[in-house]
């Protein structure tokens, strides 16, 4: 397994009907070997797998080595993420932090690393708030 030291959160900046397959097609059209994100969270909270976690992603220039990329479907400059997306994001991050022995400070928004609006003004505050969590023990999954 490759070393991972951070989790980076994105938005798709697309309609909520977008799928991982759509993103795969966009990324391949850009000349990439496949989808750049490791996980995609749909509006209903469903997680779709992207690039296998053992492979370096293609989601944040200069930060792909050592990171896991998570993309929430939606344009969070224009809309709010759904509550279930936020719950799923928190649970997925918690699981990744436990797996890689990281603390919440290792969770970042894409725009923490470059001049981009991603993951959108309506998601960035939630991502930054997650960084302040001081525990990463019990995993709570929505609807479980």
How do the SSEs run, as a string of H and E? EHEEEHEH
Helical coverage, percent range: 10-25%
> Ranges with pLDDT <50 over ≥5 residues?
136-144
Strand content: 5-15%
Task: Describe the 3D structure.
It is a single chain. With 144 residues, the protein is α/β, with parallel strands linked by helices. It has helices at 20-29, 83-99, 124-130; strands at 6-11, 39-41, 47-49, 67-72, 107-109. Strands 3-2-4-1-5 form a 5-stranded mixed beta sheet, covered by helices on one side. The termini are far apart.
Provide the fold topology.
Layout: E1 6-11, H1 20-29, E2 39-41, E3 47-49, E4 67-72, H2 83-99, E5 107-109, H3 124-130
Task: Give a quick rundown of the structure.
By secondary structure, the chain is α/β, with parallel strands linked by helices. It has 3 helices and 5 strands.
Keywords for this structure?
144 residues; disordered C terminus; 3 helices; alpha/beta; 5 strands; globular
């Amino acid at each position: 397994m490759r070393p991972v030291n951070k989790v980076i959160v994105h938005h798709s900046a697309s309609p909520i009907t977008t799928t991982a397959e759509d993103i795969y097609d966009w990324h391949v059209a850009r000349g990439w070997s496949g989808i750049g994100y490791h996980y995609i969270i749909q509006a209903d909270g469903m997680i779709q797998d992207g690039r296998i976690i053992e492979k370096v992603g293609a989601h944040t220039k200069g930060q792909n080595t050592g990171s896991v990329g998570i993309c929430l479907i939606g344009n969070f400059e224009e809309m709010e993420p759904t509550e279930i997306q936020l719950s799923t994001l928190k649970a997925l991050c918690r699981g990744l932090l436990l797996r890689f022995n990281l603390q919440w400070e290792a969770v970042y928004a894409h725009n923490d690393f470059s001049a981009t609006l991603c993951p959108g003004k309506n998601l960035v505050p939630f991502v930054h708030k997650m960084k302040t969590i001081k525990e990463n023990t019990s995993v709570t999954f929505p609807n479980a």
